[in-house]
Specification:
Blueprint: H1 3-24, H2 28-41, H3 47-66, H4 72-102, H5 105-108, H6 111-121, H7 123-137, H8 140-156, H9 159-181, H10 187-221
Helix pairs in contact: 1-2, 1-3, 2-3, 2-4, 2-10, 3-4, 3-7, 3-8, 4-6, 4-8, 4-9, 4-10, 6-9, 6-10, 7-8
């Protein structure tokens, strides 16, 4: 099975899980956040995969919300809050993996660290582009709510965008220092470094998901 087919199957699985979460109606924010994180943590992580996962999540939420009479606005807002939080965690996990690579600049080089930082910088725009696109293809209340969420995100910003900007500024300064102290690797290392960065980021997600799930279990017990 090709990597593209595997990712396509994973995206459909994610969309279905989101639909079930919204149909159930319990803890929508937390459930959407955790489903999104789990989808992002499966395999390597890059800009293309993040867009596909967000597309699957918002699509699933939109379809399920339209089936909930009178609760479209609430369901979509809670779902988008979950996506936003998950992507803020994406920035935090990326920070750890980029820091690790930047700290070993002689071995890794700066090119892929910079590319990973650039992907962080456009994270918010990517999410809002997906939401805007789905708003245009939706109808009724779902179209209006998605459109409002996209406009609000562009005007007021998102948690994901703010986290990504903070990480970008911090790591850019660190990367510049490490580059001055180190030696940039050749192009033959670039692919290897990119794979290691994406795998490391996905690995940090697994720990994040476990921690969030434990927190959720404690709340339920209380």
């Amino acid at each position: 099975m090709s990597e593209q087919t595997t990712q396509g199957n994973q995206n459909r699985k994610t969309e279905n899980e989101i639909r079930i979460a919204l149909t159930d109606g319990e803890n929508v924010h937390e459930n959407v956040r955790n489903i999104t994180l789990m989808a992002l943590s499966a395999g390597q992580l890059d800009g293309k995969k993040m867009r596909e996962v967000v597309q699957a999540v918002v699509q699933g939420a939109s379809v399920a919300a339209k089936e909930k009479d009178g609760k479209v606005k609430y369901s979509l807002r809670e779902a988008m809050a979950g996506v936003d939080e998950a992507l803020a965690k994406t920035a935090e996990a990326s920070k750890l993996s980029i820091e690790e690579a930047a700290g070993r600049i002689k071995e890794f080089g700066s090119h892929d660290c910079k590319r990973a930082l650039d992907e962080l910088l456009v994270l918010e725009d990517m999410v809002l582009d997906v939401v805007t696109g789905l708003a245009k293809t939706s109808d009724g209340a779902a179209r209006d709510v998605l459109g409002d969420l996209a406009r609000h995100g562009r005007t007021r910003g998102t948690a994901a965008g703010k986290a990504a900007q903070k990480v970008f500024e911090t790591l850019t300064r660190q990367l510049e220092q490490d580059v001055r102290r180190g030696v940039t690797s050749g192009a033959d290392t670039a692919l290897k470094v990119g794979e290691q960065l994406s795998q490391a980021t996905a690995g940090f997600f697994e720990g994040t998901v476990e921690a969030l799930n434990k927190t959720g279990s404690k709340r339920k017990e209380q």
